[in-house]
Amino acid sequence: MQNSWSIRELKRQFNTGLFERLSLSRNKKELKSLSTKGQIIEKVNDLIKDPYILEFVGLPELAHYSESKLEQKIIDKLELFLLELGKGFTFVARQKRITIDEKHFKVDLVFYNRLLKCFVVIDLKIGELKHQDLGQMMMYVNYFDRIEKQDDETPTIGIILCKDKSKALVEMTLAKDNNQIYASNYLTILPNKAEFQKILESEDV
Fold first, then answer.
1. Which CATH architecture describes the domain 7-201?
2. Of the four listed, 13, 37, 107, 143, which is most buried by Cβ atoms within 10 Å?
3. 39-48, 92-101, 191-200: segment of lowest average pLDDT
């Protein structure tokens, strides 16, 4: 009801384990609130999922594909991607060009969240997350905070969608009080029962 989902979208979110994925980053008190009130977006952590399920793009799990192909598939299915991201997202730009000291960079995808009143920049990585990827995202986030953000808006959020990541590498690279940059896995096929059980029992949770 909160999201005005169609029956089809409700079934998709149920089948992709939306409640379980949202519960991975919540404590018991927040989890009880989630089960009774649904998803309420009040802070950045309420917005982040891990993993994101992108089965609608139609890419097989083991296929060889490029980041640009994944990006194109997401754009082709933009409505479904917005639903997977969560509440309040609007599309801003694809391959957003930014210039720093006469050097040009391109941000894969840029969104805006109306509920948190902030930009959300997304970088796509088809392989394992590297510390350089986190550094690059820090630069993107800083750029948007200093150049694009208005005074009445909240700090920019950066999300790196990757096939694999090391929790230790992420924690070592980012500040302890980080609440702007996040690395989340994505899956292009639905996890089976055993795989989802492994996600729930993972040490990274």
1. 3-Layer(aba) Sandwich (3.40)
2. 107
3. 191-200
Percent pLDDT > 70 in the chain is 81
Is residue 205's pLDDT more than 60?
A: no
More confident residue, 157 or 87: 157
Listed as own residue / partner, the contacts of 86-89 with beta carbons closer than 8 Å and 24 or more positions apart are 86/39, 86/41, 86/47, 86/49, 87/2, 87/3, 87/39, 87/41, 87/113, 87/115, 88/41, 88/113, 88/114, 88/115, 88/116, 89/113, 89/114, 89/120
Give the domain ranges of the chain: 7-201
